[in-house]
Request: fold
Amino acid sequence: MKILLLLGYWILVIIMGLLYMGIARKVTARIQNRYGPPFYQAFLDVLKLFSKRETASHGVMHSLGPVIAFAGISTTLLFLPLGKGAPVLHFQGDLFVFLYLIVIGPLGMALGAGESNNPNATIGIARALSLMLGYEIILFMATLPVFVHFKTASIYEVILNQGAFPNWAGIKFPLSMLGGLIALQGLLGEKPFDQPIAPHEIASGPTVEYGGKYLGLLQLWHAVAIIVETGLFIDVFFGPQNILWFFLGTFIVFMLSVVINAVMPRFRIEQAIRFYWGVPLLLVVLGILQYYLWR
Amino acid sequence: MYNISLALLSILLGALVFFGTLSHKALRIASLVVGILSILAFTFLYLKPGSLEIVKLGVFAMSFNLTEVSQFFLWIIIASFILSLFSLLHEERSAFFYLYYFLAFGFAALTVMANDLLTLYMNFELMSLSVFAILLLGVRGNTKEIAFKYMIYSLVGAYFYLGGLFLKFRYSGNIGFGPIVGASTLTQIGIFVLLALPFLVKIATMPFHNWAPDAYYSASDSFTVFFSAGLSKVGVYGLAILILKTFTELFKNNIYLPEVVAWIGGITALLGGIYAFMSDDAKKLLAYSSISQLGYVLVGLGLFTPYSFSAGIFHSVAHFVFEGVLFVTVAAVIHRVGTSDLRKMGGLIKKMPISFIGLLFGIIAGSGIPPTVGFPGKWLLYEAIIMKGDLFLVSLIFFASITAFLYSYKLVHSIFLGKLHKEHRNVKEAPLGYIIATILFLVPLIVFGVFPGALFERIYTFTKPVFNHDAFFTLNSLKTQIGFAKMTVAGITLISMFVISFILYLVSGKSYRAKQEDNYTAGEWVDEDFASHYAQEFYGFMRKAFGKLLDLSAEKFWNGVLSIFKAVAEMTRRVYTGDVRDYALYLIFFLIVLVFLVGGRL
Reply:
């Protein structure tokens, strides 16, 4: 029963993620004054990719990379409570389990992409890893005062302890929330932080040698990753929501990111990293100082 | 049967291998196998904890005792030594090398068994001396200079330690591990710094780390397995014993010292990580990663809460496991490829798959991903720091832990992924010894990752008397006041999700094996001479991102210290010329001054 419930959440999240991706393309197109694909385009893409008859592979690790990536992000998903209504495996691990599980996905993709003997792929990975030095620490320091404020490291307890609207952690710690929002843009890999993919520069980076079912798995990975990454933000800063409001929240946050993406140019990689060490770092440090002052 | 005869045994075995190596190649291997077997037999059959053993040497006596904590570290040293011997089977070195190798092991074992500070000191220094000899017989670089650098750092540490030892004796009247009574806090901190210095040098804490990258780079590849996985634990043991037994009250009552020690560890972890991903040599990269990981250990030990201390000890075991497997696989690759330059390798996954799996798990554990051995220690460390309320320190540690992903990926990509070069087309899988060592390292890597309780139980036996805390673990889970982590659930979920994804992968379409050059390169023709391996300046852009931070160098700092010393010496030399006429002049000046000062009363 429990396992069926978990699988149900998993499939729901995949569907929602693909839906978000489709809508994102539509929104971006409308902003750029194009007509754009239909909102269900992402489903069609995945279906098409999985029904390809034959796909090129560069070796065992190249084939396993996307599998590990998808497995990793799915595992991470099960450790993230989807709002207060859908406790999944949260009681088996806390924030730090989550933070270390979430890197399995990118690591799997990095290993797979690395085997392809295409420098574009490796450059993309090198940039993605370096960019982590920018946004991960900001995201971590943004969530830190909230967790310490509620004296727990469990994401679910943070959700429950926040209480109704004016007591949301995002309202108590506005600077941290703002810093977290900026970090989220990098975590999602949207412009101005899309150096790892940079289609015009390194031919979409890590995915350059992937096609067919591999790309299909990576699309699914991306779909789940969107929900997981925005979901953590909603969980930590916007209090106990039921699953409907949870998805609405993630949708709003993701759309915000997509809108910014549509109108932004791209930083150079070292500019992006240095950007994070500037104003966002100041914001989250102030957030931590705010916690110390309140204590 | 005495425990300390392990040292005698290792000397005998060293002599055996020495003569074996001199006579015949087959005898060398046979005697090494005898060495492995007899140390294993000794360990399992004779080693008994808890008996005081005293060796009288003329006027003073050396005392040894195999306590819980000594036993814990002795096991690590024995395990890493034996596993490094497996890879040593395939390395041909001079006879003296083997002798010193066994001596270093013997003295390391005696060091952790020592029951007073002086015995500890003597064996520690004899161990350093053996390592110095091994470094002199290094395989790369300017071995003489590198070995002397190591020795100078060790000696300076030793002198400080001796000073600390005298002060300890002056205040407490003995040289045992017991606490110092009657000294002011400031004096105690001073003694702690003096006594801890050689151990900080041994675990290459910044700014005393300069010797390490060079030494690891230069030393024999199999020796570095033991060097990093085993001998660095002697340093951890020294710090642990000082903090647990001698300076317990100081660490409990003083609020600044634990913080300072922990921050030094954190900065070491961060800078070590940054230097690791900026270095282009496999051995240097691993050396810096070793420094960085031992930084976490120092944070854990220094912070002195029950959780952090246990986390530090646990992570030092994790360090033994994953640095061991990393150094073994890298040694195997160097054995086959003949270079340690990351820019000259690539694509070896198809030639050396087992080594690849070893290195892969090594980096996974090194980055701290569950359910491997690297995770529980880091997890507990985070929780401990958060409970202590030091949010900036935990951010620093987290930042440092991200650098692990960067250097890990650089290592695995540059060696195993990417392009297979023409000259490596006939490379074979590593020889049997390396494979055995790799596989043996992988067992604890998974087992202690899924069942960390098995190790924490041992650690608990010697942290409980000091901290008097409750057990925070079961066999497969950890629980603190603020968080919870169940390793088996993470592992099972990961495996089942992998199975599901793999089924999805299997049912959807076939895949064919593309040739190496069959690539998307925007219409450009790729042949095998096409430079498509991205290894040069892997994180080159980070130079711009970090800017001046990368120019920070302990080497420069110590050179600055050196130049000050030289200037002072130069000034002294002006006065102290060695010329009799100058001294005569000084005498006359002195007499004149004397006349002016006291002349009236003469």
